Request: fold
Amino acid sequence: MSMDPFQSTWITTEEERSPYVELKANKDYWDEGRGPKLNRVIFRNDLTPKQALHLCTATEGEVDIVTGVAPEDAVTVLQSTHAKLVAVNGKRILAGSFNRYKKDVNFNNRNLRLSFNLAVDREALIKEGFNGYAQPVPALTPPWAFDFPKGLSPRTFDPERARYLLKKSGWPKERALKLSGEKEFEKALKVLGDQFRKALNLKVDVEVISPPQQAAWKKMVAEKKLVPSFDIALFSPMAFFYEGTPAFFHREYFGNNGAFRTGPVIPEFQQLFKRMAAETDREKLLEHSKKIDEYVYEEALGLFLCSPQELYAVNRHVNFVPYRTTFELAETSVSHEHWSLKGKHPKV
Reply:
């Protein structure tokens, strides 16, 4: 991404996993209050998501927990007599990056960015694009984070003002909008495209990036050597902490070394970010973080949409306690009705 100073980002191109990974409980763990509640955990990497979901929802003794359940598959879990659905407010944000490198339209104009934000019916997007399993967000900090600015709320759907601002920004007549995103969010992309067509009276071309193309597409955006063809691209970064979330979300979209930044560096953002990054006092760090989110909201720097929930299919006899930031089994236990305690054993 940069040679002076050198900066880079990680893009996954391939994953090689062992068919099985077995974890055994450390019964000498120092914190007895959080001591192991499970004797053994086996991670199975020999199954496709479809196979794993079927084994969890239709059988006993093969799969107890399935991570990353797609919203459209939630109904399968809800109808199962073997499993239950567990939803937790997620560690990801779905937002659009405006291509401020474009010459024929000016996404450096706040009116234009605000226009698209006002043209989104977030409740409908969540209902139709995520089957209801997401939270609307005002900007990029999720509502569950410690540094969420309590005074912010998602912008209200206002198509009339959105059309006014689009016209005021000088959007060329008959010029189509190109909206891009990965296959995982195809449904949401299409819903969003339809909303823009209706609210803004725009032609919209939706580009779905297939899995084989995704690494090259992300690399092109991160390197910033070429001007991307899209006008708005949806990305979904994730955070692993409850505080200092701009280091994970805002930096990726707007920072000097942000992989999803599609436009010149924004000096005002960099100044705010450096203040947060240099802060060692926790309370002051939280305040700086809130100011960053308030700034990007006020400037409508991104197309702010929602925070998708993490969905799990869980065996009905497993007491699964999910974490928001990572997949953990520290507090998870099983009831006396679980297959492992009734003389049944998996095939592995």
Summary: The chain is about 30% helix and 20% strand. The chain has a mean pLDDT of 94.
